[in-house]
Specification:
about 55% helix, 2 strands, about 10% strand, Rossmann fold, 2 domains, about 100 residues
């Protein structure tokens, strides 16, 4: 959600994007809290990636840790980015779903 809000705040049409997030996206998703259980998974992933010399941004590790902790599949357009995280279930999202 943070990335969506960041995009809205950086947009020239901020109000339209904020409205879409609040009226269309939020009602359609469940926002999971970042808690101690997820923080432990985050720490494990971050330590492993650092040891292997494969750094990812903390926000991406938080997303992956949340998916792993809740046994969820992460839908992404960047499989290569996330496939370095063991135990993470991935699903490739099409970059432009309108062309389906």
């Amino acid at each position: 959600m943070g990335e969506l809000y960041k995009g809205a705040y950086r947009s020239h049409d901020r109000e339209r994007h904020m409205s879409n997030i609040e009226q269309r996206v939020l009602p359609a998703v469940t926002v999971l809290p970042y808690d101690i259980s997820i923080a432990k998974v985050f720490g494990s992933i971050r330590a492993h990636l650092e040891d292997a010399g494969m750094i990812l941004p903390d926000a991406d590790i938080q997303i992956a840790a949340t998916a792993i902790d809740h046994d969820l599949e992460l839908v992404t357009g960047n499989i290569r980015h996330f496939n370095r995280i063991s135990g993470l279930k991935l699903n490739l999202a099409l970059a432009n779903s309108r062309n389906r």
